[in-house]
Amino acid sequence: MKKFTYLLFAMMAVLMSSCEVIGGIFKAGVWTGIIIVAIVVGLIIFLISRGSRKD
User: Where do transmembrane segments lie in this chain (predicted)?
Assistant: First the structure.
């Protein structure tokens, strides 16, 4: 019974830390996606405003 308890605690520790790692990856992915979208939208606005100028 004692071995089972140690095994259970070891499994919980591994699973909990892996969930934190996956959560960190998803957070980084969200912020990376937001930054990329902002850059693309800014580039599109820049190109449209530059193309619509009549010099």
Answer: 29-48
Residue identified by tokens 């969200």 is: 30
pLDDT digits (tens, 9 = 90+) for 1-55: 777 777 777 776 666 666 776 777 778 888 888 898 999 999 999 999 888 766 5
The alpha-helical segments, DSSP class H, found in the chain are 2-51
Domain membership of residue 19 as a residue range: 1-55
Number of domains in the chain: 1
Which residue do the tokens 């449209």 mark?
A: 48
- Give me 48's structure tokens: 């449209």
DSSP character at residue 52: T
